[in-house]
Design brief:
globular; 41 residues; single chain
Length: 41
């Protein structure tokens, strides 16, 4: 089960990828998760 905040984080990461055409590194996604106190996947 995915909580709303976790889903929002990964949607935001994907949106950045679609907008920029660049793939976000797992480090950046982990930092985003840390910023909102979520465990990184």
């Amino acid at each position: 089960m995915i909580h709303g905040l976790e889903m929002l984080l990964y949607q935001a990461a994907r949106q950045v990828e679609l907008f920029t055409g660049e793939t976000l590194s797992q480090t950046i996604v982990s930092l985003m998760a840390d910023a909102v106190a979520l465990p990184a996947r």
